[in-house]
């Protein structure tokens, strides 16, 4: 194979341009995140529990985030249905556009003595923040604590209080976060159990 200096220079320039685009964050694009927890209790399934916990690190000038928890109990007596959605979005840039949608619903249909809870917490850090590995580890410990509520058999009101306390811990972690390094890849982690 013959060496072509002009071709080698062009390849070298393309590699340098590609690496510089990665280091500077690439082109400005919209980034989206979607998180959904769903729990459905019925005559055949008296106890239903779901946690959707998402940590998303973005590097974008536009952020679109949707977080939803949907719980329902149908045609049963004494059913227990809990859906918990936590979405954490941190942007390494200052986004010029943020579109956030957060929704939680709890519905009982033909149900007596049912406990149904749909709760959604959404945290969007719209200042230059890069989550460190330590920050992410702390957040994933919150996820484990949310899942431990599955075994509590507590009433929905008590679970809601515990979830609210954990949301306060997430807010504290995020208020002190942002000492991470600029990774060359975007992190997208959703933990569905």
From TrEMBL:
Signal peptide feature range: 1-30
Keywords: Signal
Keyword Signal: yes
Superkingdom of this protein's organism: Bacteria
Protein name: Lipoprotein
Protein's organism: Actinocrinis puniceicyclus
